Amino acid sequence: MIWGKYLNGLVGIPFLTGLYLTSLYNYLLFHSLAEIFSIVVACGIFMIAWNSRKYIKNEYLIFIAIAYLFIAGLDILHTLGYKGMQIFADYDYYGNQLWIAARYLESITLLAAFSFFHTGRKVKPRQVFLLYTVIFSLFVASIFYWKVFPICFIEGKGLTPFKKISEYIICLILLTDMWLLFRYREKFEENVFRLLVCSLIFTIISELAFTFYISNYGFSNLVGHYFKIFSFYSIYKAIIETGIVKPYDIIFRELLMKETHLKEAKDAAEAANRAKSEFLANMSHELRTPLNGVLGYAQILKREGNLTESRKTGLDVIERSGRHLLNLINEVLDISKIEAKKMELHPSDFLLPEFLTAIGKVIEIQAQHKGISFQAELAPDLPRAVQGDEKRLNQVLLNLMGNAVKFTHRGGVLFRVARGEGQGARGEGQGARGQGQEEGEVSAHRPSPIAHRPSSIRFQVEDSGVGIAKDQLEDIFSPFKQVGEHTRTIEGTGLGLAISRRLVRLMGGELHVESASGQGSVFWFDIELPESAELPEIRKSEDYQHIIGVKGKQPKILVVDDRGENRIVLVDLLSPMGFEVMEAVHGREGIEKASEFQPDLIFMDLVMPVMDGFEATRRIRNTPELNHIKVIVLSASSSLSPREIIVKSGCDDFIPKPVQVPIIFRVLKAHLKLEWEYREPEGPESGAEQVLVIPSREVIERLYKSARVGDIMGIRKQLDALEGSDQRYFPFAQEIRKLAMAFQVKQIRDALEEYML
Ligand code: ADP
User: Fold this and answer.
1) What is the per-residue pLDDT for 78?
2) Measured between alpha carbons, how far is 230 from 214 in angstroms, rounded to an integer?
3) Which of 264, 283, 312, 710 is the most exposed place for a label (fewest CB within 10 A)?
């Protein structure tokens, strides 16, 4: 680059010197060469701009390029009309008149060109061409034909006042051009801008030089022409060189500017999105913390023996509502994570049939409550153990089946899982409960045309419910969209399907739906679930409800959390079981208490004042007397995955908040190698060995009558009387009472019908 510049200079010096020597030898030749140079440049500017006018978005440049063609025309005539050329025999000084005409045209063109920036108007090249043809013709006619153009030079006297004043006016116009150029500086590429400024300065100097000469062949005329060369050279550099050598600078300058603006807008949007995600993460942390107290205590209280029925129901309601709220928070978080592209899958090995049966059980209970049927058809050849994100798959299936139950009032729900082949999307007109089908009957489906892949598994949920209108089928996948008439009466956020679709896509599949209003719906998707080589350890569910303590030595536990309500949940859970529990309010106190108390295990919160859980855990790991202590991080944080938390802090395990008692017990057992002590089964409530004694047919018929008319109060009174008459009826009464509490009249009738057989 630098060499290039020097080279230009080196070429320039002999050229200018040669030109000077020419002027000494023959001034007319010098003049002609100098003018030809500017004429060639002007024509070049025109050609470049005209041929690339489609791409040049800078209206200023197109406009002046066209004008320069006509300026070049005047300059040709000026060269030809110069004194001594003897082409126009009638008058010696046409040259001076044409010079002034050309310079007026040049300076005013530069001025007018700015109006395209100011008004934002588009240049219409043909119109500009026409306009300049007219102006050019007027100048030429007024000089050569009408001879009304003022005289500029008088032999023996030199320049006329018109010529001198005109040069000054032209200088003023050029100065205004310069001022405007600075004003619209951002429209030009930096280099082009600098060269245009240089060109203007050189033109002004050249004009000033032309106010002095007395002879057309004098020194001042020479200087003027040199500066004209410099001025056109600068324009040449600005437009021709940039147009040919670095065309993108001119042609795509607008594009670059747009890109810069877009980038700025994108940065702003990203910053806003980050702020939103952060806000949501913080918010969810804040919301989960009080929920920790609510849910934790509901679970602790439920563990207490001899609770009355109404207390139990109350605690159930608290727990259910709490879980519902937690679910909502999680859904909002999930969708924001997905949108911020932060959602990741965490695959592991799991047992597929067990996993599906467990989900089926949950849905079966819901369906039973609603009085609709539920059927799970699991193909016998499903792989036993597979690799996938169990939690997310569970989430998707629960959402689909939960919806199916929610939107079905007659008939039922069919859940089918099979290897990719053989299971089909619903064929036209084959509704889950097509026309003419019996209530509760769920149709079989046509095989799918989708190609079979070895480890691909199809999950399909079909219902005979209210269905979805065809034109709303896409809407249901949009966040917060609920369709149909039920929207206000049925609870839900409208986020479930939006999340499910994105999760299925993350798993490499696509969530499909077929439905019609009143015809039921089918949702299905195929995903790859590679078979795992090893069978994962089967998780046995423990009867946590009946744990009352630990066998052997009582472990020592330290709970580190800045929130009292969080600490107390753990203290109240563990102390009655004989654990020795100590509390600390932040990381530093945690370390101090750990040294003196020497606990077996620490429950560590993450976000705390003074010293957070990450730092405290790291320090514990680096202290020889403490590093044998198990550290379990408890956190409501949603921005890090469990694995990230474990790696980052060096803890032994992670439990998400709000805490769930079974998880606490599982973690304690796993890390402290405990053996639980269970409560002895006592009284008729404890279940296992209870014998169901069925009351007399008379009693059952009376209950059935009340059930038929929906008299729940009557049923409950009769059950009270039955229990009072004989303790052995307790299990039977309990079963019916549960249904009565949930107003499940149909189920009560069904159950009683069975006993009447
Ligand atoms: P939510 O169930 O929380 O309202 P979803 O995103 O899970 O949100 O569902 C969005 C909407 O799609 C529902 O409100 C309902 O209008 C419709 N929908 C979903 N599943 C079914 C179904 N099985 N039958 C009829 N309508 C459904």
Assistant:
1) 92
2) 23
3) 264
